[in-house]
Design brief:
With about 300 residues, this protein is an alpha/beta fold. The chain has a single domain, classed as Alpha/Beta hydrolase fold, catalytic domain (Rossmann fold), CATH 3.40.50. The protein contains 8 helices and 8 strands, in the order αβββαβαβαβααβαβα. The protein has an 8-stranded mixed sheet, with helices on both faces. β1 and β2 form a beta hairpin.
């Protein structure tokens, strides 16, 4: 085994240990975990923070952007199994995306489990979405999310569509968590390849997020929503991600009811490899370039 492979394995194991520790602390102490601004901000970006429903909302804009300039916006929901705050990798990824597109990113610090559940999350994010649409219109808004944030983004999309509210012009999901029950039989085929996610830990976090009555709700499991209402949904997913089977399943089910879901699948890519700075550069760069091209051609 190469030294680089050993180092990568150590990094993955340390990351898994930290995830377990975060879950243990959160469960025993019901800590209110919150995202903070990054310690270092890239020169090309500026970050503004404001309060909404008692939580922080971060806006990341290009330094060159003028006030009231006519630009596109990205409403971004970070991942973290609904239990962890945005990481340094998230900030680096978002700042790079702002730099490369010239768009403004809006990232809410939504409530996290186990202190809160999905009802608390939607109590914040749905009115926030409505406020953003009221201010900038839906034809300038792209909704995005990774992992748990991808599941949240799609659940929110389905909810506002059911309520006949204005939809974002596009929704882009990175390794989305579409079913917290993780019952897809094809997951077993990928588990050994996925060195990032742990199925049992995910199910533990998912049950906490669902609360007492949400385990069968489409707001928690958007794969169970009305897929016929989906329009202009793009998913970026790797083949070595245990969330891959549910993404494939979502598309197949959506196709049967004329929902619009497109999947960009990347060989040997693991969970949220697009955001993970430790991922293999060649795999990451190809997917990142595809994503930026997709954003700029809207």
């Amino acid at each position: 085994m190469k030294k680089t492979d050993i180092l990568r394995m150590i990094v993955v194991l340390l990351g898994l240990c930290m995830s377990i520790l975060a879950l243990v602390i959160a469960y025993f102490f019901h800590a209110d975990i919150k995202t903070s601004e990054p310690k270092k901000i890239v020169e090309e970006c500026k970050i503004h923070t404001y309060k909404f429903e008692g939580r922080n909302v971060f806006t990341i804009s290009p330094n060159s952007m003028k006030e009231h300039e006519n630009v596109n916006y990205i409403l971004y929901f970070h991942g973290g199994s609904y239990v962890a705050e945005a990481t340094d990798n998230h900030w680096i990824f978002l700042e790079k995306m702002v730099k490369d597109t010239g768009y403004t990113v809006i990232m809410p610090d939504y409530p996290l489990t186990p202190k809160y559940n999905y009802k608390d999350v939607y109590h914040m994010v749905e009115p926030l979405y409505e406020k953003i649409i009221e201010k900038i219109g839906n034809n300038k808004l792209i909704m995005m999310g990774d992992s748990a944030g991808g599941g949240l983004a799609l659940g929110l999309y389905e909810k506002i569509a059911e309520e006949n509210k204005k939809l974002p012009m596009k929704t882009m999901l990175i390794s989305p968590w579409l079913d917290v029950k993780l019952e897809n039989q094809n997951i077993q085929k990928i588990e050994k390849k996925d060195t990032i996610l742990n199925k049992e830990l995910l199910k533990l976090a998912g049950r906490a997020y669902a609360g007492e009555d949400g385990l069968n709700s489409y707001l928690v499991n958007p794969i169970e929503g009305n897929l016929g209402i989906l329009r202009n949904i793009k998913i970026f997913i790797g083949t070595d991600d245990i969330l891959n089977p549910d993404c494939i399943d979502l598309k197949e089910k959506a196709d049967m009811v004329e929902g619009e879901v497109e999947i960009k699948e990347y060989e040997n890519a693991k969970h949220i490899w697009l955001i993970d700075n430790n991922s293999e550069q060649s795999i990451t760069q190809k997917a990142y370039n595809d994503m930026i091209e997709e954003l700029k051609n809207i």
